[in-house]
Amino acid sequence: MIGILMLNTRFPRLPGDIGNQHSFAEPPLYARVDDASVSAVVSDKKIDGALLDQCIQSALELQSSGATVIGTSCGFLANVQHDIQQCLNVPFISSSLLLVPIIRTMFGHNVRIGVLTFDAAKLGPSHFNGELNSHISIHGLDQSGPWYQCIAGNHEQMDEGLAGIDAMDVAARCIQAHPDTKVLLIECTNLSPWKNQMRTRFGLPVFDLVDALEWVNKAL
Fold it and tell me: What's the CA gap between 77 and 186, in Å, rounded?
């Protein structure tokens, strides 16, 4: 069974988002981390010790409740992957960014990977575990756009059509800036609802954390 560490947010979790139970073949277990706001987690620095302890405790609760693989709702937690994983007895995947070495093994070490994120300015080397180099381009939501504003402001309602326009725009800008992009990697789980549209429109493989967790869950 899949378990998910959730940020404490109220913005819409659309179908395809890791926070929507219908995004999975079977409903996962969820554990909300009380102090894990967007502003506390989306940072170029590691979360503070108190919040890390909360994440670990919530992960342990998921494990005790029967989760056999655990993920998170925010890829920025990649820089505490080891801290949380070492406390668990089940596989833990903090972020789709952990797929970078696998993608390079499959497509070639110099493959151009476009990483799609919420805030490009704050996603940095500490989140890539030594894998960030010139063959990775990072692109974030337009900070003036409605989907970014909804997530940042933690608004309860959002027009799905407008959110989709913002999400597809991230991928379009990535490919426009780097036409040699061969793979799209969705770091921000709030962009996953449009991964199939991205695959169709741009003709590229698109990886995200939802699919990775399903893969590991099936292996178990």
Answer: 14
Return the sign of the alpha-carbon dihedral for residues 52, 128, 171, 217. negative
Tokens read off for 60: 């342990």
Domains parsed from the chain with CATH numbers: 2-95+211-219 (3.40.50.1860), 97-208 (3.40.50.1860)
User: In the chain, what percentage of residues exceed pLDDT 70?
Assistant: 100
C-alpha angle with apex 58: 185 to 55, nearest 5 degrees?
A: 60
The CA distance from 72 to 6, in Å, is 6
CB proximity list for 73: less than 8 A, separation 6 or greater: 4, 5, 6, 7, 9, 18, 19, 189
Q: Mean pLDDT score of the chain, rounded to an integer? A: 97
How high is the pLDDT of residue 58? 98
Q: What angle do CA 61, 4, 218 make, to 5 degrees?
A: 105
Rounded CA-CA distance 116/140 in Å is 6
Phi and psi for 138 in degrees, rounded to 5? Answer: -110, 130
Q: Which amino acid is at 153?
A: G
**Interior angle at CA 128, CA 27 and CA 211, nearest 5:** 25
Mean local confidence (pLDDT), 35-48: 95
Q: Give the whole-angstrom CA distance, residue 70 versus residue 207.
A: 17
Label residue 37 by pLDDT band (50, 70, 90).
very high
- Tell me if 35 sits within 8 A of 58, measured CB to CB: no
Q: Are 6 and 34 in contact (CB under 8 A)?
A: no
